[in-house]
Design goal:
15 helices; 2 domains; abc type-2 transporter like fold; 66% helix; ABC-type transporter activity; four-stranded mixed beta sheet; membrane; elongated; 4% strand; mainly alpha; ABC-2_transporter_component
Length: 370
């Protein structure tokens, strides 16, 4: 194998990419606008939820409760009557409807433990599940404060103090932006290498390579380093300019260490792209195969759902996928500030998986050329 051949063929791949405006546009979009919208446009936590209040008590404590709901978690509460509550819920105008019964304050001061009814529109699942608990906490806090000021409250035996590590404000933008960068790295590395091989086959240039004094290893390595370099540079720009700059997400660990792990991930995923391209007869077939491979890699790697929540069999199987180790590595470095002494098992796993995928894809690529 000659390094000069690998470099020259890789430069040829980069020139071919520069002549493809659609792929260039996809790269720019995936690492800029897609990262931003993933963290801002689709909130995973409670945000501007519609709430209505039926105040049948008209007392100071019911007024305190009504004034406790405000942006950004809720819109300004709308005071409605009991007759309007069901019709507004049926029409989808309110996600939550809180009914404060008559004589609520009197029963509260008398120690009768009155109840408040909360109606929830469960079709809005994200807001419904998180919002119900949030409303319960707000109502409990306002009642406790009211009783304390009125002299009817007793001291609570335990005071729970919540401290969230690595994301003190529980800002979903921190997680969403990093997760989208990880997803884009995997997706584009597969797309670019696969598209490069299919483009050569469709244009007939793969036949030209067969008569040149180059080996299948050199051809394959040229596609890996060239397309991997493009994705690596794009991910670095995205981390520095979009994640750290535009979104102001604090990066706790070493970005160069993360990029070193990204290079190992790209080594593995570009091999997957070459294998899929050799199995596909055209670009549409490649797209279908990529969906079948990419979805399990993204969904079951632990980026969307914690691995601990998955069946043990799935956890064991996904240890064979490079994405699983890359997600662990990326979150440990970027969120927790981990060093090489912590993430070296993931580096070693990515290197081993990448080597296995390279040998497997190389065998398939040689048969493809014949």
């Amino acid at each position: 194998m000659r390094i000069a051949n690998v470099l020259q063929l890789g430069i040829k791949e980069l020139r071919g990419l520069l002549r493809d405006p659609m792929l260039l546009l996809l790269i720019v979009y995936a690492f800029t606008l897609s990262v931003y919208t993933a963290s801002r446009a689709m909130p995973e936590t409670l945000s501007r939820a519609a709430i209505a209040i039926v105040d049948e008590d008209r007392s100071p404590v019911s007024g305190r409760i009504a004034l406790a709901f405000y942006p950004p978690y809720f819109v300004v509460p709308r005071l409605i009557t009991m007759a309007e509550m069901d019709s507004r819920m049926d029409a989808g105008l309110d996600t939550f409807a809180l009914d404060i019964p008559p004589n609520f304050q009197r029963d509260l001061l008398a120690g009768r433990a009155p109840s408040i009814q909360l109606n929830v529109d469960a079709t809005r699942m994200t807001q419904a599940f998180s919002g119900a608990g949030h409303i319960q906490s707000i109502v409990s806090a306002e009642i406790t404060e009211f009783l304390r000021r009125s002299g009817a409250a007793t001291a609570t035996p335990v005071d729970l103090v919540l401290r969230a590590r690595f994301n003190p404000q529980l800002d979903k933008a921190w997680f969403g932006s990093i997760h989208n960068v990880i997803s884009s790295i995997t997706m584009l590395s597969i797309v670019l290498t696969g598209a490069a091989l299919i483009r050569e086959r469709e244009h007939g240039t793969i036949d030209h390579l067969l008569v040149m004094p180059v080996s299948p290893v050199e051809i394959m390595l040229s596609k890996i380093w060239s397309m991997g370099l493009v994705v690596l540079l794009a991910s670095a720009v995205s981390i520095y300019l979009v994640v750290r700059g535009l979104l102001a997400v604090p990066i706790e660990g070493s970005v160069p260490l993360f990029l070193a792990g990204t290079a190992l991930q790209l080594f593995a995923t570009t091999c997957i792209g070459i294998f899929l391209a050799t199995a596909a007869g055209s670009m549409p077939q490649f797209g279908l195969l990529m969906i079948l491979v990419l979805l399990p890699l993204q969904v079951l790697s632990g980026g969307m759902t914690p691995r601990e929540s998955m069946p043990e069999a799935i956890q064991a199987i996904m240890l064979l996928a490079p994405n699983t180790h890359f997600v662990i590595l990326a979150q440990a470095i970027l969120f927790r500030g981990a060093g090489l002494d912590v993430v070296w098992p993931q580096f070693l796993a990515l290197l081993g998986i990448g080597a296995a995928l390279f040998l497997f894809s190389l065998g398939r690529f040689r048969r493809f050329l014949k």
